[in-house]
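User:
Care to share a sequence and structure tokens?

Assistant:
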Amino acid sequence: MLTLRYFSVLLVVGISFAFSQQPLTAQAHTSSQKSIIIGVSMGAATPSGVSSVRSMRMAVEEINAAGGINGTPLTLMVEYGQNKDSVSMDNTIHQLIGQGAQVIVSGSGSANTLRAARIAVSKDVLLMTAASSSPRISDVADKNLVWRTIPSDIFQAATAAKLLRQKKFATVGIIAINNAYGAALAQAFAQSFQKAGGKVVASVSYPDIASYDSFDFKSRLDSLYDKKPTAIYLVGYNDDGAKIVSDSKAFFSAAYKPFLFGCDGNYNNDFLLAVDAQMLEGMEGLSYVHPKKYANFDKFFAKFKEYSSKSADTSDLANISLAGILDVEATNSYAATSYDAIYTYALAATKAASTKPSEVAKMLPKVSRPERSATIINVGEFAKAVEAMKKGKAVNYEGASGPVEFDAKGDVTHGNYVVWRIVQGKFTEIGTVSFPR
């Protein structure tokens, strides 16, 4: 899956005087009407980010066409900040709250989501993220206000460890970016790998900075390769990951070249283009992906493809490197989780007959619970859900990204990862791994 940077979406939701159109940016408002604001704060536009905002707009328009939440329409309000500028990203959150929102959105990474969560919780605001996967998010003291429709990296870590042990690798070295995403994923992987009988012989980290062009990885790579691990787990993104692999060439020889295994942050063409193809040949890794042969995703994708062809937001792609666009399936996996975030919120608010965050939060597990007597709600069936709830029936939303079932920490309990391999300078999907609900 495409991850130029692990972007995150926090839904900012509240009742305010806003606008009934669904703008990509707040500046596009043209008419006034009482509505429920869904605010989205994001970093600089990426293909996955643009697709996610677009899918949220599609969900909002579907829900409004079905009468909105208890008769009140939704408005999507989007603010953009700078990915690695915490002040910029936090300002977008404060701006959205200042406009009457009761949920906050932090873009571009789990670290931003964690900061946004603390701000949101302090203001008693509901927060949902469709892309931030750090296990640390599960442990926020959140008063039941932080939720996500993408699985925790606890599952990615366990899957990576299992695959490496199945390949008979007994020792591994870990190199990970030191931020909320990288550090937590590396720690979870180390625990899973050792629990599976393997040994972590080296674990090093490096800072999360704006550019790695002049960064010297030598001392860290000395430590990483000193004990000759048979496999390397690389937890980073495209620019830093590419430099790590390139600088590792000095440590490899005919007698020693460890197996390279990456994460979703490496799974984009910018990573491929920045490294000698021979260094990457045979490298494998994981990336979050929508379920295969799943009717609800297929239905979502067909609707989304048609909707995207008519979208007016294509100008947001102007600053994106085309080399970073892996394929349509990659961006659409995050689009599906983003669509589900809107739908689960709207269903929960409808069931609660309230937009008060604490009341909506209580209903989130109840609209996605697989009870035997519950009415199944599929993609695009908001009107059906409203009708069922009016009759006092339970509903079970089966999402675009898969069954959306929340645990006690507000995390979904299912997911799918594509296993990728680099062959002759290209990503090749060699399998899909699913984990149970």
